Amino acid sequence: MILHFDNARLIDPEAGSDMPGRLTVRDGRIIARDADSPEGAEIIDCAGRCLAPGIVDWGVKVGEPGERHKESYASAGRAAAAGGVTSMVIRPDTMPPVDSPESLDFVVKRAADAPVRVRHMSALTKAREGREMVEMAFLQDAGAVAFTDGVRVVSDTRVLTRCMTYARGLDALIVGHPQEPVLSRGAAATKGKFASLYGIPDVSPLAELMGLQRDLALVEMTRARYHADQITTAAALPPLRRARAAGMDVTAGISIHHLTLNEFDVGDYRTFFRFTPPLRAEDDRLAMVQAVADGEIDVIASFHTPQDEESKRLPFAEAAPGAVGLQTLLPAALRLYHQGGLTLPQLFRAMSFNPAQRLGLDEGRVAVGAPADLVLFDPDTPFIMDRFKLESKSKNTPFDEARMQGKVIGTWVGGARVFG
Amino acid sequence: MTFRARHLLGIEPLSPTDITSILDLAESYVDLNRRTIKHADALQGMTQINMFFENSTRTQSSFELAGKRLGADVMNMAMAQSSVKKGETLIDTALTLNAMHPDLLVVRHPQSGAVNLLAEKVNCAVLNAGDGRHEHPTQALLDALTIRRSKGRLHRLTVAICGDIVHSRVARSNLILLGKMENRVRLCGPATLMPAGAGDLGVEVYQDMREALDGADVVMMLRLQKERMDGGFIPSEREYYHRWGLDAEKLSHAKPDAIVMHPGPMNRGVEIDGTIADDINRSVIQDQVEMGVAVRMAAMDMLARNLRAERGARASEGVYV
After folding, report:
1. Using alpha carbons only, what angle is made at residue B279 by residues B273 and B280, rounded to the nearest 5 degrees?
2. Domain count for chain A
3. Segment B211-231, tens digit of pLDDT
4. Tens digit of pLDDT for each residue in A297-342?
5. According to the annotation, is B226 in a ligand binding site?
6. Is there a contact between A137 and B242 if contact means CB atoms under 8 Å apart?
7. B137-151 and B16-33 helices, crossing angle to 10°
8. Which of B1, B33, B42 is nearest to B18 (CA)?
């Protein structure tokens, strides 16, 4: 089957271009750019709207196994397709965690329910307890794209050193959560005026710097490949810069919430705004947007974290952190575009191209030969977010009733239409 | 006969000629050991004390047998259970022993460098039977003899040493010896079990067994030293075996006539497949044990000669040793 996308505004993050274009797709791959439509092709008139590589969302939580009532592969997959996410990179922090070839096999089978591509990360240590490394070689052979204990920081540096050394031997990627675990224990807000006024247990933004510096020292020692899942403070940028200048194989990500919201959005103890790490000061948020523009932060992701109503209907510091984001990632990211902070190629570099490259995936590009994982969207269509219309089983979004812009018209995975 | 040292503490100080002369002498003891009457008199009247601060069955019995066949009075001291437990320091133990006038001390100790320290304090010849992660010279010599007899030479061979390198004194002594004899040495194992800076030791370092074994003449497997691990070097034995355990498929990448060695004791199904270890066409593991006795006899013979020469020289100068 041949598809021909005509009259598109083609966003190419690899080339950094945003210009009118055409794409021809056959057997699930892009076979031509700006060619005439071949004989017998199904023509899709994009009517001048944006056609971009589908989002590779790095850090999605699905509730299987253990919390399927919060999110299943089927519901997460529907949300992804509706949000222009064509690859979900799944976190291993399930109950029990994905920490063995056997448990990975289970989630790989369950993931067949999702209409989009699903990649799995494995836990770094058994049961995420920070004591013994997982069977990285077996897990890598079984398809694990990276290893992480998520927000549970491996505090024993000897264990982490061994994990990194072993991973270096396998050329495996380790994803860290840069945070000083003792300082940040129990914290629900970033240290500052807001936390002080509202009396919320807080943590200094420098706890992130401390965690990152430790991890980077171990990376320098072991020469492991490392990705910091979320860098959210300006103070953490200089060491990141130095590490890269020293030739270390280090990248960093950030959640869309930390790019679009700040500490004051919590307002009247609204638990849908509780995140790990906490929302930061406006100065930090602005610095992070600039860091994405400069390429210092490589990856923007939703960190989709479904929580049921009961987990959120609690006093602020007791409520479960995180928000759903598969479906709101693109419209939230478009806020940065409309405000003029980031261009569309910059956004899709961080949402599609970079994460795919870092994880060794073929997608995230609109080059000839790449898989036809595509999202067609109108960046301008305004709407008011209604959380009950989200495809996710859980509805915990901080953007409920928010005015947003950007509507997904269609999503294709390997040339097959999965939305619209 | 050029080996002139007082002690045998490691391979490092030996010259290629030293190594060759020990191996040549060992050959004659291989022949002796195969006879019904196995006695020689090189250590006649001498006292050999085996001090093992770390449990050992194989090495200790090999040294004991070697001493007895050479006519020495052999005493075993199981130091792991003795005065050390009562708080005696290593130097005090040495001085106590010294007063008993031994001629040969065979010492194994869990700390690197402990045997060297002891050697400075006693008036007899000291043989290192393994100190921590440092050296195990008689193991390297017996491996060299096994290789030389099996391959017909001890130079210009490709030797792959695989497994738990970081904890292995066997690996250190072997890579030094094989390097001195101008062989190509490759190390292979998980990164957590590879010593830092291994690449600077004049060897090639590999992660992948198939690449490491490609075209190898000798495959030397090491024991996974669980007792030296404080946890967490490898995720599981099954993954270790899958990646770094020697099986028929991995061995097929070596030369068709490559030999398989293991210093013992083996963990079958962890670092080596049992059928490979038992394959009489490939495995020389039993030969290694046999060569062990002969090499230890040769080493002690030479040290005894040096000791007599030294004492004779001093006596003629009127000094009582």
Report:
1. 150
2. 1
3. 999 999 999 999 998 776 666
4. 999 999 999 999 999 999 999 999 999 999 999 999 999 999 999 9
5. no
6. yes
7. 70
8. B1
What's the sign of the alpha-carbon dihedral B106, B110, B112, B118? negative
- Each residue's pLDDT tens digit, B269-291: 999 999 999 999 999 999 999 99
pTM of the entire structure? 0.93
Nearest CA in chain A to B238: A135
CA atoms within 13 A on the CB side of A181: 14
With respect to residue A64, please indicate whether it lies within any of the assigned structural domains.
Answer: yes
Residue type, A319: A
Q: What is the mean pLDDT of chain B?
A: 92
Q: Is residue A75 part of a domain?
A: yes
- Domain contains A30: no
H or E element, residue A161: helix A157-170
Residue B80 pLDDT > 80, yes or no?
A: no
Q: How many CB atoms lie within 10 A of CB A36?
A: 11
CB A359 within 8 A of CB A146: yes
CATH architecture type of domain B7-135+289-304? 3-Layer(aba) Sandwich (3.40)
The domain locations on chain B are 7-135+289-304, 137-284
Cross-strand partners of B159: B185, B218
Residue A58: strand, helix, or coil: strand
Residue B48 marked as a ligand binder: no
Within 10 angstroms of residue B100's Cβ, the number of other Cβ atoms is 10
Q: Give chain B positions within 8 Å (CB) of A131.
A: 231-232
pLDDT digit string, tens, across residues A359-400: 999 999 999 999 999 999 999 999 999 999 999 999 999 999
pLDDT exceeding 90 applies to what percent of chain A? 100
Residue span of the structural domain in which A143 resides = 54-364+380-404
Q: Between A and B, how many CB-CB pairs are < 8 A?
A: 43
Strand locations in B79-217, DSSP E? 104-109, 125-131, 158-162, 184-188, 204-206
* Fold of the B137-284 domain: Rossmann fold (3.40.50)
Residue B101 annotated as binding? no
Alpha-carbon distance of B122 to B105, in angstroms, equals 9
Token pair listed for A110: 């369950």
Q: pLDDT for B106-158, tens place per residue?
A: 999 999 999 999 999 999 999 999 999 999 999 999 999 999 999 999 999 99
Tokens of A352: 């599609």
Residue A109 lies in a domain: yes
Q: In this complex, is the C-beta atom of A105 within 8 Å of any C-beta atom belonging to chain B?
A: no
Contacts of B313 (CB under 8 A, 6+ apart): none
Q: Is the CA virtual torsion B53, B59, B64, B66 positive or negative?
A: negative
Please report, as a single letter, which amino acid is at residue B13. Answer: P
- List the one residue out of A341, A346, A344, A349 whose CA is nearest residue A406: A344
Q: What one-letter code names the amino acid at A40?
A: G
**Separation CA B184–CA B186 (nearest Å):** 7
∠A30-A35-A39 over CA atoms, to 5°? 85
Which of B143, B141, B132 is CA-nearest to residue B166? B132
Chain B hits for A133, CB-CB cut-off 8 Å, are: 232, 234-235
Asked whether this chain's domains B7-135+289-304 and B137-284 adopt the same fold, the reply is: yes
CATH of the domain at A162: 3.20.20.140
Rounded Cα distance between B207 and B243, Å, is 9
Which residues of A are less than 8 Å from B231 in CB distance?
Answer: 131-132
ipTM of the assembly? 0.89
